[in-house]
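Selenocysteine lyase/cysteine desulfurase (Paracoccus sulfuroxidans), 467 aa
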Amino acid sequence: MSAFQSFLDRLGDDALASVQAGLIGHDAVIQGPFGPRRMIYADYVASGRALRQVEEWIMAEVLPWYANSHTEASHCGGMMTRLRRAARQAIRDCCHATGDHAVIFTGSGATAGLNRLVHLLAVGPGTTVLIGPYEHHSNILPWRESGATVIEIPEAATGGPDMAALDEALAGAEGPVVGAFSAASNVTGILCDVAAVTARLKAAGAKVIWDYAGGAPYLPIDLGLGMDAVVLSPHKFIGGPGASGVMILRRDAVMTQVPTLPGGGTVRFVSPEGHDYATNVEAREEGGTPNVLGDIRAALALLLKDRVGQDRISARHEAWLHRGMTRLKAHPRIELLGNTDCPRLPILSLRIRDGHGGYIHQQLITRMLSDLHGVQARGGCACAGPYVHRLLGLGPKQSQQLRAAILAGEEIQKPGFVRLNLCWAADQAEIDAILNAVCDLADRAPAYLQHYHCDQATAIFTPLAAE
């Protein structure tokens, strides 16, 4: 931790206040079609925001000495090697992992780690993979493409995976079993009971993977619960833009000594006749030139969250969730998606009714939030197609019709919603501004339809004044 003490010192005694003061772009103004608007960020589920303290520390303490790592012979190379080693340990500590766990930097988010796990756990035909009800495409498609049997566990009425259905699936599974679940939905923020699901899977002899891509910036991560692997996307943390993806993996869960992507740095020796791979799984899985700055940024993002404190983050989330739910559920034209009575993060996905039995397109509402109120949200399906089918009540016939339209180039037909995140770093005035903006559009959006042109092929709405 001493390698990063000078960074923690920059956060001062009140890390929350320091973060709020240090957010880059906090006072940015958008010059939009309806005049200037102060930018208000509510898209943290897609990406976190840069922090002045992180950028200044990297400029002062890393960039002057930047070099490729993988050496101790030169001052700069040795310094980067040691910083990456310290970053790995900091992440291990923040996630309650031990020396039995490998911390592997991989790609730019959780997707790379999940794809690597297919290879590292030797998942393929004959393997059964149980996935949760809220999965992002990154925790669906790699398992499908592996040839394994993929079974989705349905949602319980109280939220989270249905434990009776999980027991039934475990009892009927043949061959090796892997459970891969999201700690929190990236659409609705609904939480899974990580400890209970992990215990149930381990009792049945399954390997257990948790996708914390959407949940890691807001939830505790505890490898001591016994899971085999966790993947996370530090770029979604405050201070995390540019950070590497992270996979934390039990060393004894690895089923192969061959790297997922063989290359430089993965070997101990290469001759004209053969080669010997590294015995260390981190070395084997981090071939090529590392993203040194991204690896360090990942550690800084987790350390920052840890310094603010889980109790403080959770308390603010509870307050913002209550405030958001109370306000939005009361509006007759706002439809909140998912179970609104179960434990969840303040991730709110919604549709706005048009007053004529339909809904205003999610991309248009997202554009209006930005143009009229400066609020940065996200419209679409959040790369969680199967879950969104259920949330929107789309049956097989509707699904096939939508698929045909989209493949024919009619992106405008793709259903979806607007997603907002009421982040712990926001103050009450910002939270209220976000909620006011949504309610205002629920009241007034139809009056602005005439001011936009829609490209049917791309579902991009352009203000007429901007054409």
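Residues 103 and 248 are 5 Å apart (CA to CA). The first helix runs from residue 5 to 10. ok done for today
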